[in-house]
């Protein structure tokens, strides 16, 4: 006998499978866990040559026992066994047991089922990713959503909020249309948090920022070894992370046509497979898409799939640019200043003239540009007061693109900027000249001189 009978009971306490062979590779003992793994009884295995069991259920074409006997050292290998449409993965470690003549007497193999461990790792990785998304979501909501608290003081934005409230109660896809910087992400988050999915994840994907070669694996995830450089544990994609939540597809017009096909299939069937995987994964995701492009023209030019367009364009919401809702500018300013003051523990205020200039500007970059300008002025102003001279030069046409070559040009550009500010503020050269304490003829002469010298487009009325 290899060992007393009590050893059987001892080995059966192990969660891992244990198989012991002699120096000739004959199986002399297996525990209960190993029998469960292989689906074979001890009577079917004991006494058999380990070489004849290769290919049976658990074993692959490689045997840790044979390698231990050949190499006379501990050996660890990974083995795979077919299971349904996939496979199970086992880690087998073989340990040689030597006699007094330093010859191998027995080989003890411990077999661990890695499938469950790998699944736990994937769940942990997914949980960590979702936790990170939650933290980012909370921070983003604190800094951005709460920053302007979905500003809606104009009729057009009140209509947008009403539309968002209506669609939030259902799961229909939403298409947010509007120029860059108008607040499409804020509206998407508002819809998510007003919906029944508010406790689920909100996953934002910028379709224009992901390399085309990585898009499929980013959206649908990948299995271990799916491609060179892939994580050993595999990785869940956006659809898995957004399960029971919302997937926000920003810049949807930048998505390659081949991925559009797979996206459409995932939306219609609510299931997909990871890259390199065979297992079908179901995902319950609400889609909100956004674009500043003319999708209708892209469909006509066959740059965007018509079937995907109609799948996403179920409930379109147009978000107007800031120039069409200027009455909200003071509210954005107020929210920004409050946030900036709380963050930096300083007091900042705008003069009436500076506020009026901000109100009159067309804001091609919309809310994003306004926030950028406000922060820049808050940094550059002195004594906590933002005045007209703190406004950036680029707000006055192509004046901002001119780089002075001499100190004299620097002085002239500073004066030119001040004159354009005054003209914008006071609407006429007479009032602007009076505000700058110069005569109207001098004001007009200098404006013409600077416009000609610096090649600026004269958009002022010299009256």
Describe this structure in a few short sentences.
The protein is α/β, with parallel strands linked by helices. Helices cover 44% and strands 16% of the residues.
Please give a structural write-up.
This protein is an alpha/beta fold. It has helices spanning 6-11, 32-38, 42-45, 50-53, 64-71, 114-148, 155-168, 184-194, 215-220, 238-241, 257-269, 295-300, 306-312, 329-344, 352-360, 366-380, 407-426, 429-435, 440-453, and strands spanning 17-22, 27-30, 75-83, 86-98, 104-113, 174-177, 202-206, 246-250, 271-273, 280-282, 286-291, 315-318, 349-350, 385-386. The strands form four sheets. The protein has a five-stranded antiparallel β-sheet with strand order 2-1-5-4-3. A five-stranded parallel β-sheet has the order 7-8-11-6-12. Strand 1 and strand 2 form a beta hairpin. Helix 17 packs across helix 19 (440-453) and helix 18 crosses helix 19 (440-453).
């Amino acid at each position: 006998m290899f060992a007393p009978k009590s050893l059987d009971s001892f080995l059966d306490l192990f969660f891992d499978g244990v198989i012991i062979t002699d120096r000739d590779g004959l199986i002399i003992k297996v525990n209960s866990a190993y029998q469960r793994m292989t689906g074979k009884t001890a009577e079917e295995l004991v006494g058999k040559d380990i070489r004849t069991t290769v290919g049976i259920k658990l074993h692959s074409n490689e045997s840790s026992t044979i390698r231990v006997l050949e190499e006379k050292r501990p050996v660890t290998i990974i083995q795979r066994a077919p299971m349904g449409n996939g496979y199970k993965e086992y880690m087998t470690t073989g340990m040689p047991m030597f006699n007094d003549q330093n010859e191998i007497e027995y080989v003890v193999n411990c077999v661990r089922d890695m499938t469950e461990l790998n699944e736990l790792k994937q769940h942990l990785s997914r949980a960590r990713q979702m936790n990170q998304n939650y933290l980012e979501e909370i921070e983003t909501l604190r800094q951005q959503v709460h920053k302007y608290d979905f500003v809606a003081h104009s009729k057009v934005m009140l209509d947008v909020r009403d539309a968002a409230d209506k669609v939030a109660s259902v799961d229909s896809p939403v298409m947010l249309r509007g120029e860059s910087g108008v607040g499409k992400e804020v509206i998407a988050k508002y819809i998510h948090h007003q919906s029944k999915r508010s406790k689920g994840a909100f996953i934002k994907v910028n379709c224009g920022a992901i390399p085309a070669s990585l898009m499929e694996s980013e959206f649908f995830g990948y299995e271990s070894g799916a491609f060179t450089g892939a994580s050993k544990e595999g990785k869940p994609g956006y659809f898995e992370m957004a399960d029971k939540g919302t997937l926000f597809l920003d810049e949807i017009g930048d998505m390659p046509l081949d991925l559009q096909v797979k996206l459409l299939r995932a939306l219609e069937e609510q299931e997909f497979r990871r890259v390199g995987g065979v297992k079908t994964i179901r995902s319950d995701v609400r889609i909100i898409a956004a674009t500043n492009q003319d999708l209708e023209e892209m469909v006509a030019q066959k740059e965007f799939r018509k079937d995907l367009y109609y799948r996403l364009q179920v409930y379109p919401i147009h978000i107007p640019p800031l120039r069409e809702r200027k009455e909200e500018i003071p509210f954005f300013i107020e929210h920004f200043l409050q946030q900036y003051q709380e963050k930096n523990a300083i007091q900042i205020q705008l003069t009436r003239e500076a506020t009026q200039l901000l109100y009159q500007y067309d804001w091609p970059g919309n809310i994003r540009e306004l926030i950028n300008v406000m922060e820049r002025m808050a940094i550059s102003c002195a004594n906590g007061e933002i005045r007209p001279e703190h406004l950036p030069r680029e707000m006055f046409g192509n004046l901002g693109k001119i780089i002075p070559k001499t100190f004299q040009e620097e002085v002239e550009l500073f004066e030119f900027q001040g004159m354009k500010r005054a003209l914008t503020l006071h609407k006429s050269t007479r009032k602007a000249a009076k505000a700058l304490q110069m005569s109207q003829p001098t004001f007009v002469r200098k404006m013409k001189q600077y416009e000609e010298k610096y090649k600026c487009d004269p958009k002022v009325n010299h009256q």
